[in-house]
Design goal:
Number of strands: 10
Strand content: 5-15%
Helix content: 25-40%
Largest sheet: 3 strands, antiparallel
Shape: elongated
Low-confidence stretches: 94-131, 180-186
Length: 296
C-alpha cells in the first residue's frame, strides 16, 4: 500500500497472520508450505505478480517471495486499495486488538474470538478513515531493540550468580577426586556434582531469579555465556573440566590458528582465582591467565 512504484522482498519465517499466530487451514500441506502460500496470496491480493526464490543461506527457512510488477494499471489504484482494505478486514481477529467499526466490524457479534464482518463493504463515510488507519491498534516493535541475552546485565551481578552456582555444584556432594597427571604429579581436583537447571534455580534468591526471568533464556543463557566455568548439557549444569577439552587440531586454517593464538590469555582464569583446588591445567596449557602478570 506504500505506492504504485513500490516493490517488495519478504523472507517468511515465524507463522503469523496480521494480528497473531497463523492458524492452519490445510492438513495436506506442511505448515511452512501453507504459510508461504498465504504470504504469496497477500501479495497477489495487493496486486503483485508474486515470484518465489530460494536463498543460498544456512537456514531451513530460506524461501523468499518477491513482488516487482503489478497486475493492474495505475488508474485502478483506488479500486485495488478497497480490495486490500476488505482483505485485511476479513483476516482480523479480536484476539489482540479490540474490534473497531472503522475497519468494518460489529462490536456486539463475536464467535470463538473472531470478529464477524458487519457487511461486505465498508460504510461510505468510513472508507477514507480505513485508508489511513490500516490496522487500528497495531503496535510496531521499538526502533531500538532491547538486548535481553544476559549480555547487558551488570558484571557484578553476573559474577555473583556464577560464584553462587559454582559453589553450589562444588558442595552438592562430598568432594570428587579426579586424577591430574600434569607435570607427573598426582593430585586431586574437585569437579563437583551436576545439577538440573531447576535444582540450581531453587537455590537462588527470588530477586536474582526475577532479574534473570526478564532475559531471554534466563539462568540457562547466563550459564552458557560463562562457558569458561560451566557446561550445560541436556538441561544439567556441570563445572567445566578443561583437561577433557579436545586440543585444537593442527589442520586448522592458518587464519583461525592465528585468531585463537591472539585470544590466548586475554582474560583471567576463573578457576585460578575462585576454585578451591585452583585450575586443573598448568599455566602454560591454560588458555586463561593465571594472575594479572600473564595477561596479554
Amino acid at each position: 500500500r506504500s505506492s504504485y512504484s513500490c516493490c517488495y522482498f519478504v523472507l517468511p519465517c515465524c507463522f503469523f497472520d496480521f494480528h497473531g499466530k497463523y492458524s492452519r487451514r490445510q492438513s495436506k500441506k506442511t505448515q511452512y508450505r501453507e504459510y508461504l502460500d498465504f504470504v504469496a496470496q497477500v501479495g497477489f491480493v495487493c496486486g503483485f505478480r508474486v515470484e518465489e526464490d530460494c536463498l543460498r543461506i544456512p537456514s531451513t527457512k530460506r524461501v523468499c517471495l518477491i513482488g516487482k510488477n503489478r497486475t493492474y494499471p495505475p488508474t485502478e489504484c483506488a479500486l485495488i486499495d478497497k480490495q486490500i482494505t476488505q482483505y485485511i478486514n476479513n483476516h482480523q481477529t479480536c484476539a489482540v486488538v479490540t474490534c473497531d467499526r472503522r475497519v468494518g466490524f460489529n462490536h456486539k457479534d463475536h464467535s470463538d474470538g473472531v470478529c464477524k464482518e458487519a457487511g461486505s463493504e465498508l460504510p461510505e463515510n468510513e472508507t477514507d478513515t480505513a485508508g489511513t488507519i490500516w490496522m487500528p491498534g497495531f503496535q510496531p516493535r521499538e526502533k531500538v531493540e532491547q538486548i535481553r541475552n544476559c549480555a547487558s546485565l551488570p558484571q557484578d551481578f553476573v559474577d555473583d550468580v556464577v560464584l553462587s552456582v559454582a559453589n553450589l555444584l562444588l558442595n552438592a556432594t562430598p568432594q570428587k577426586s579426579c586424577s591430574n597427571m600434569h607435570g607427573g604429579n598426582m593430585s586431586t581436583w574437585n569437579q563437583g556434582e551436576s545439577l538440573s537447571l531447576k535444582e540450581v534455580a531453587e537455590h537462588l534468591n527470588k530477586e536474582t531469579l526475577k532479574r534473570l526471568k526478564s532475559e531471554y533464556g534466563g539462568l540457562q543463557t547466563l550459564l552458557k555465556n560463562n562457558h569458561q566455568v560451566f557446561e550445560v548439557l541436556n538441561g544439567r549444569v556441570h563445572i567445566r573440566d578443561w583437561r577433557k577439552e579436545k586440543p585444537s587440531r593442527k589442520t586448522k586454517p592458518e587464519v583461525k590458528r592465528r585468531l585463537s593464538a591472539e585470544a590466548f590469555k586475554t582474560r583471567l582464569c576463573w578457576f585460578f582465582i575462585h576454585h578451591p583446588d585452583g585450575c586443573s591445567l598448568p599455566s602454560e596449557s591454560c588458555p586463561y591467565a593465571h594472575g594479572t602478570e600473564e595477561l596479554r
